[in-house]
Amino acid sequence: MERGGSIAARTGRLHFSVFFASVGIAYVYLIPAYAEQLGAGYLDLGLIGTVRSLPYTFLPVIAGYLGDRLGRRRLYLLSIFAVGSATLLLAATGTIAGILAVQVILGIGLSLFWPISEALVSEISSAQERASAIGMYAVAWGAGFLIGPLIGGVIAQVAGFQSTFFVAGVLLLITAGLSVVTIRGEQRRHGDTEQAPARPSWELVSAVLPMLIVQVPYAIVLAFVVSIFPGYAIESGLTPSEVGLLLSGFGFVRTMVFSLSGRMGRIGER
């Protein structure tokens, strides 16, 4: 019982860390709106999104290896620190070129944060509670993306986008600092680790390929929403707070769908 409580407490602390980190990360949605105010065109907005997405093409693939070599906890903390530092740099830049340069650091941090944080949740939770822990992880980051754009839009409306990114950067660095203290002892003992039977790489690829193909159009639409829509909304006359509200609505729908995904998956099994 004591050991289970310890696992539950560690999982809960990680969920809180992911939530507060996601609140700050969600301010990324407002970058196109800020760039549009600086005079960016749609090509610039697409380029900003592309530069940020480039690290996703290779870093998630080697994130597991890096986590094994450097430690998942350390890599998780480094990813939050990288995103927080990049967000603070956004607050200091006032040019499209500066925003583009920052996207490189931001993309590296984000492409490491997501796979490592999910791996940590799986690592520190017991086999019996793992599905529930991963579900709460989805709710934690979904709630962060629900709240973050709304707060960021209000701050941008009152004090400007640079103040918005400053607040987000400080929040992320504080989250990283607190996580250094609160997230400890993640590694489970080998007796608690389930060893899955080895599968040939070609068999694994053929099993997940249909799912990956289905995700391509979703990723394209999501890229349009994240990279283009906020700038288009500002150009159309919406205020930063209204853009933040719309993005929070998008986050709300995503959170609801993720929370229901388990039930919908069971429907398919009947």
Would you mind describing this structure in some detail?
- This protein has 270 residues and is mainly alpha-helical.
- The protein has one domain (2-188, 202-269): MFS general substrate transporter like domains (Growth Hormone, Chain: A, Up-down Bundle).
- It has helices at residues 2-25, 31-37, 42-53, 59-70, 72-92, 96-124, 130-159, 161-182, 201-227, 229-235, 240-269.
- Helix 2 (31-37) packs parallel to helix 10 and helix 4 crosses helix 5.
Overall pLDDT metric: 84
Number of domains: 1
* CATH top level label: Mainly Alpha
* CATH architecture verdict: Up-down Bundle
| Silhouette | globular
- In CATH terms, what is the fold-level topology? Growth Hormone, Chain: A
Class by SSE composition: mainly alpha
State the separation between the terminal residues, measured CA to CA. 35 Å
Quick take:
This protein is an all-alpha fold and 270 residues long. The protein has helices at 2-25, 31-37, 42-53, 59-70, 72-92, 96-124, 130-159, 161-182, 201-227, 229-235, 240-269. Helix 4 (59-70) packs across helix 5 and helix 7 (130-159) runs antiparallel to helix 8 (161-182).
Strand and helix map with partners:
Layout (H helix, E strand, L loop, with lengths): L1 H24 L5 H7 L4 H12 L5 H12 L1 H21 L3 H29 L5 H30 L1 H22 L18 H27 L1 H7 L4 H30 L1
Helix pairs in contact: 1-6, 1-7, 1-8, 2-10, 3-6, 3-9, 4-5, 4-6, 5-6, 5-8, 7-8, 7-11
